[in-house]
Fold:
Amino acid sequence: MSVVGTSTAPGGRGVPRTPASRPGDLTEFGIDPDDLPDGLVVADEDGRVVCFNAAAERISAIRATDALGRPLERALPLEDLEGRRWWQLTDPYGGLAIRVRQPERNLLLPGGREVLVSARYVREEPTGPVRRVVVTLRDTEARRRTERSHAELIATVAHELRSPLTSVKGFTATLLAKWERFTDDQKRLMLETVDADADRVTRLIAELLDISRIDSGRLEVRRQPVDIGAAVGRHIQAYVAAGQPADRFLLRIEQPLPALWADPDKVDQVLSNLIENAVRHGEGTVTIDVTPSASPREGEETGTSVTVSDEGPGIPEESMNRVFTRFWRGSKRGGTGLGLYIVKGIVEAHGGTITVGRAPGGGAEFRFTLPVSVPAYLA
Structure:
C-alpha cells in the first residue's frame, strides 16, 4: 500500500491520494480507507497525519478533522500502560534505521480508552529514512469478550469441581478416621458416592480437554466404520437397564443406510448428550430417527442423519440461537452448559451439521447430519 498525500473527501476524512504507478495501492482496487474494518492512521515523512479513516474515528473517539495535518504524536496521543508517551518512547522517525514495525500491543488514549495498536515503518530502502508510518487500531472489545469467556469457564469449572471434590474428601476422611464404626453397608454407600463423584470429575476434565481441542482446531477424528443404528440401540438399552421404561423410547431406522465412516467414540458422545437431554429435560416418548440424507460435504451425495426429539415443553424460540453456545442452560437445566457446545464441535469436526428446532410433538428436536466419508480406496 502506498499513501503519499490526501484529497479532501466530502466527509473531511482525508482519503489518501496515491500515484497510479504504484502497484498495490488501495485506490487501485477501488477500496476506500473508510471501508476498512480496522482503524487506519497514516503519517507522512514529516510525521503529519495524512489519513485517518472512519474506523479510526470510531475506535479512538478522535475526529478526523482534528487529526489530519497534525503531528502524529499530538493527533494520536498514545501512552503505554505505565503512563509513558508512546511516540516519544518508540521514536519511529529517529530510532533504529533497521526497525520496520511495532508489534500489536495494548495502549491508552486520553481518558483511559484502551486500543490495540500496531505500526509499520515504510522505507524506500532497507535502512533509509522513514517515509510513512502506517498505524492500525483495533477495538479491545473482542479480546475482552474472549477474556470474559475464559473467566466464566474457569469460574464454572471451579464451581463444578468443588462439590464432588468436597464430597470425596469428606467421605474418605471420615472412613479413614472412623472405619471401624461403620457397618459394611454404610462403607459401601460412602465408597459408591466417592466413585460417582470421581466419575463426575473425570467427565468434567474430559469436557475441558474437548473444549480446548475444539477452540484450537485440534480435535482429532479417527474414522472407522460405524453402525449408527446399533450405537443408538446400545444407548437405549443402557437407559432401560437403569430403570427407564422401554416404551419411552422409539427408534426408527430407514434402510438402506449408507456406509458411515466416523469416530465411534465421538459419535457415542454426541448420541449420549442428545439422548440424555431428551430423557432428563423432555417429556413423553423420546424418538430417534436414523435416515439417509443429502451429504453436508461438497462432492458427496449421501450422508446419515440422526434426529432426537421429545414431547416436552421444548426450547423457547428466543433461545434457539444460543443453544450451542458455551454455558447455555435452559430452564431447570443443571450441569456445566458445555455439552451442546462440545456436540456441535464434534459434529463439525466430522464435516457435518447440527440444528435445533421444535418437534412435531411440541418438544425439542435436535438433528445432526454426518457425511459418509468413505475412504477413497473404497469409493
About this structure: The longest strand covers residues 114-123. The chain has a mean pLDDT of 84. Residues 44 and 132 are 5 Å apart (CA to CA).
